[in-house]
What we know:
Elements: H1 6-25, H2 32-39, H3 43-49, H4 53-65, H5 69-76, H6 81-98, H7 100-107, H8 124-138, H9 147-168, H10 173-185
Helix pairs in contact: 1-2, 1-4, 2-3, 4-7, 6-7, 6-8, 6-9, 6-10, 7-9, 8-9, 9-10
Amino acid sequence: MAIPKRTERSRTLILDAAVLAFREAGFAETSVEEIAMRAGLTRKTVYNLFGSKEEIALQLIARVEAGDAIYRARMEANEDVFVLLERVFLDSAGWCLANPSLAKLALAPAERPSLEPRPDRPSFQRLVRDLLVLGQQQGVIRKDDDPNFMSLVLLGIYGQAMLTALSSGRFSEDEIRHLIRIVVEGIGERR
């Protein structure tokens, strides 16, 4: 096993220290100095590796988004898309509740999301879009609409539900299942 370079070890120490500091004090109340102290590094080292506290937070969010291999393996096995959607959103909700200050940044980004997921990094939007494509292939998600657009609709509703849950501190698995059912079935009365 190769030993990671000093720079990578320092980046990992910083990210690990930052996630703990953000959980304890929140994003706004955590300083770069606090992150450096927890990592056992100097403030200068932190700034040499990350341009800002915001960049550290974005790297933490990207680190979570990059962990979608388990879901992709289940997609390859052609598992039921609704079971997978529930699992993905339940796992995301658990992460959001454990990391509220980072979740607020991820759920209400400064830049408006685009119809196509960003090609330069893993993204939750891409995972959800790919799940909807699987659902189209399985014949349970409508094929007459763009999965990119449908993923933005689903994520917009989910994001608002999670921001509400974060402000109230309450959330249940049944609420995720309810949210998915409402999105899939729609809000209109069936004729």
